[in-house]
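Problem 12. The chain below contains 28 residues. Write out its predicted structure in token notation.
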Amino acid sequence: GRDDAKLYVGSWSDWCSDRSRPVATGGD
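Solution.
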């Protein structure tokens, strides 16, 4: 979920363009 973006050091948009980041998406 979007709330999990806080676990990623960066912005949600940055993560969206880098799917290789080890982050729990919460099943979006």
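Discussion. The helical segments are 12-16. Students who got a different answer should revisit the alignment rule from Section 12.3.
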